[in-house]
Write a structure and sequence with these properties.
This protein is of the alpha/beta class and 273 residues long. It folds into two domains: 16-97, Elongation Factor Tu (Ef-tu), domain 3 (Beta Barrel), CATH 2.40.30; 103-265, Rossmann fold, CATH 3.40.50.80. The protein is 19% helix and 29% strand. It has seven helices and 15 strands. The protein has helices spanning 77-83, 103-106, 121-132, 155-163, 208-220, 253-256, 262-265; strands at residues 16-25, 30-35, 46-51, 55-60, 69-73, 90-97, 110-116, 140-146, 167-172, 182-183, 200-205, 228-231, 247-248, 251-252, 259-261. The chain has a seven-stranded mixed sheet with strand order 10-9-8-7-11-12-15, sandwiched between helices. Strands 4-3-6-1-2-5 form a six-stranded antiparallel sheet. Strands 13-14 form a two-stranded antiparallel ribbon. Strand 3 and strand 4 form a beta hairpin.
Length: 273
């Protein structure tokens, strides 16, 4: 029997080498990196990003295809090494992984997008996609909150979205002397909107405690569990469902998520309960 020695088997643990093309400073501790190569991805998916000699971390993709942008908050050894990258540096990227936002189900719907802090990053690509195909969707609401005005990410996008055919609401927990907008957690924005559950889907990403109270606010508006979609963050070591670090109940965030319809996980103990 002839051996099929020419058959190439892709190693799922082997990253692709990709070069940093552009860098944008978002805040004192957050930068967005754009790469010269792209690959097909869905808004809401993530990659495993490695800096050689430092390690590997999961990072949400913060752009719509075909662009590949990753927004990184420096909080540890690997993310500090990423933050220090310069244009022209080469990193390793595995992915894209996960299921992404349910883009097909959003067509013809009123869409409510709620982000907190850097949790706006996985939602940014979705907003970009919706605005590029605006006629395919009904009302678009974007609610975004951060700790302070200096912690707001994607400031140029926020300015552009405020002029787009969308309803943008922004808040901060603590204002400075220049802030003229809303002050309070992101749920304080709901009374300022005319959001209703009719023909609507809400999509949420941010800190667990923020998502918990956003879900409560949506349910108070009579949203059903199956009208709420969340992106769950976990330490997704392998990205392919092998290591078990990211499980919630019987589900693995890296392959069953990171995006979940809330109905799927409503009865599983998580930070949203």
């Amino acid at each position: 029997m002839e051996m099929e020695s020419s058959l190439e088997i892709e190693n799922p643990y082997l990253p692709r080498l990709m070069k940093v093309q552009k860098i944008r400073v978002e805040t004192e501790n957050i930068k967005t990196f754009e790469f010269e190569k792209t690959f097909g991805h869905l808004p809401g998916q993530f990659v495993e990003l490695s800096v050689f000699g430092a390690g590997e971390v999961p990072i949400s993709i913060s752009s719509a295809p075909p662009n590949l942008e990753l927004t990184v908050n420096r909080v540890g050894i690997v993310t500090n090494a990423i933050y220090d990258l310069e244009v022209g540096d080469v990193v390793g990227i595995r992915g894209p992984y996960g299921n992404g936002w349910p883009t097909d189900a959003l067509r013809g719907k009123n869409i409510v997008i709620v982000g907190g802090g850097i949790g706006l990053a996985p939602l940014r690509g979705l907003v970009q996609m919706i605005l590029s195909e605006r006629k395919n969707y009904e009302k678009l609401y974007i609610l975004y909150g951060a700790r302070t005005p200096s912690d707001l990410v994607f400031k140029q996008d926020l300015e552009n979205w405020s002029k787009a055919p969308a309803n943008l609401f922004v808040t901060v927990d603590r204002a400075d002397e220049h802030w003229k907008g809303n002050v309070g957690v992101v749920t304080t924005l709901f009374p300022k909107t005319d959001i209703t559950p009719e023909n609507a889907i809400a999509l949420i990403c941010g800190p667990g405690i923020m998502m918990k109270f956003v879900v409560k606010s949506l349910k108070a508006l009579n949203f059903e569990d199956n009208q709420i979609v969340v992106s769950m963050e976990r330490v997704m070591k392998c990205g392919i469902g092998k290591c078990g670090h990211c499980n919630i109940g019987a589900k693995y965030v890296c392959i069953d998520g990171p995006v979940f319809n809330y109905k799927e996980i409503a009865n599983i103990p998580t930070e949203l309960k």
